Amino acid sequence: MSIKRDTILVALAVLLLVFPVFGVGCDFVNEKLLPDLSPKKQVSLSSNVNTELPPEFSILAEAYKRLSEDYVDKSKLDPKKLSQGAVKGMIEALDDPYSSYVDPKSHELELTNFEGKFEGIGAVISMKDKQLTIVSPIVGSPAEKAGVKAGDKILKIDGESTAKMTLIEATTKIRGPKGTPVNLVVLHPGETEPVEIEIVRDEIKLESVVLEMRDDIAYVRITQFLKSTGGDLDAALKGAIKQGARGIVLDLRNNPGGLLNAAMDVASEFLAMGLVAKVVDDEGRESQVPVKRGGIATNLPLIVLVNEGSASGSEIVAGALQDYGRAKLAGSQTFGKGSVQTVRELSDGSALHITTYRWFTPLGRPIDSVGLTPDFVLELKDEELVDWAIDYLKKQISASLLFARI
Fold this sequence. Notes:
disordered N terminus; about 400 residues
């Protein structure tokens, strides 16, 4: 690709970091991940770019000419701000919550993501049914402690209605320095009356992979897909195997996703061969995202926990494991984000987050706006579902040993 910092991301906007990046980090993945796709057509960034634009775009120059001639306050005619506003309006006209414009300062900040800590409330947001929605609070974060829940609709931010806010605008208003408060009015799932919640921002430290041994079952929780997730999971699994793990509970609940290559790394630890996903571009061309060989947990009994906060990268991993019969899914229906965003830097340091692909499971199942249905649909929450999964695995292991003896 001709632009230096092209990034492929497969996640949701995040309050917990700097700005909604549709991923939670800055580890850039180029399109070599998608080898079957020929290079996309790109508009030249040369000085004569206007000659390549559709004739309808001449109205932009015409509008600026009229403003410069007639507008009463010439001090407000800042070409830089007006051009950025035009780009922002262009993106908003797509009516795609996952495509966005990020101004230069905001893009510079978002490049610091995935570094393991940040200041904010510790929650993940997205647009769902055209409403600002909490995908999941981070465990132990100020948001979780204040009572923010997955599925909450954010109605107001510091008294201002979110009805006409974009994802980036909302994120900008909620994020802030440690020790400062933000006031949210939210509607909890299943409730009819909104509640007001004040949250004091704090420094949030990210831990992508958590391992706990529960007797001879390894409980592995992945909170999001960071640049370090693949290596962290590999180390955790090796440690679990050394401790005699006979089965694995992989908890992807409230995991909003992250980087495509991190999702590939995670799925590849459990699959010996095959595909992680399929992606389809704007011209209907399909590319396959293959499993990386050499996974160290391809044979251990496995069950995956999901819920309505499991999105994007989480759905990629869970969908692949379900398609191949490698693991059963337990919990509730997943979020349903099946699109891939590419970050394109512009010449002034700003960036576009462009929805460039739709992804599907290895068997071609669509995810966008649909999600994954667990093999075991259960209303159990928190540790109750973990206990159920451990018991399920132990029964499966016992049954397989009995069969072997026969």
